[in-house]
Amino acid sequence: MITLEQRQQVRQRANFACEFCGVAEVDIGDQLTIDHFQPKTKGGSDSLDNLVYCCVRCNQYKLAYWPTEMSDTQLWNPRQEPFVEHFLELEDGLLYPLTSTGKFTLNRLRLNRPLLVAYRLRKRKQIEEKQLLERYQELTQLLEQFYHQLSNLTEEQQELLREQRDLLKLIIKWAR
Ligand SMILES: [Zn+2]
């Protein structure tokens, strides 16, 4: 039995997103499932290092996979190996496998399912838009600083002009 406390720990540790495909609770509008990486039916335990936070779809595709023969391919364990070790995300949002484990996991969990690819592209676009907005804000700040300096400079120039005029008046008065 997974306790409520364990569930909370697994959720937090996974940053509230599927550890296989990256879809977050807020994208789905609900909590995700907890997967036993080594299935309980294949001897897996309820210990935290065997629990993976997992969306319903990834969980359905993974099922109770566990390699039994030496020749069986290992499934990628997101708790033990970084994503970038096994996959490359391409420009068009598709994942490209870098290892045999990556290739196997990609096929088994259908990590290039069309809606997931569309999700990846949308997420990337949101990040790009956010970066663009930040750059725009920086530029606006710089412009504000520039106008401030310019107005200071104009005031100084006017002051200088006033002094010159006063000086000229004095010279004219003295020359008479
Ligand atoms: Zn998933």
Description:
There is one protein chain. With about 180 residues, the protein is mainly alpha-helical. The chain has a domain at about 5-110. The chain is built from 5 helices and 4 strands. It has helices spanning about 5-15, 25-30, 55-60, 100-110, 115-175, and strands at about 35, 50-55, 85-90, 95. The strands form 2 sheets. A two-stranded antiparallel sheet has the order 1-2. The protein is rod-shaped, with a radius of gyration of 31 Å. The termini are far apart. It binds zinc ion. Zinc ion (ZN) binds near residues 20, 21 and 23.
Ligand catalogue: zinc ion
Radius of gyration: 31 Å
Strand order of the largest sheet: 1-2
- Principal-axes geometry comes out as rod-shaped
Quantity of strands, as a count: 4
| Class of secondary structure makeup | mainly alpha
Q: Given the structure, what is the number of helices?
A: 5
Average pLDDT rating: 94
DSSP strand (E) fraction?
5-15%
Helix content: 40-55%
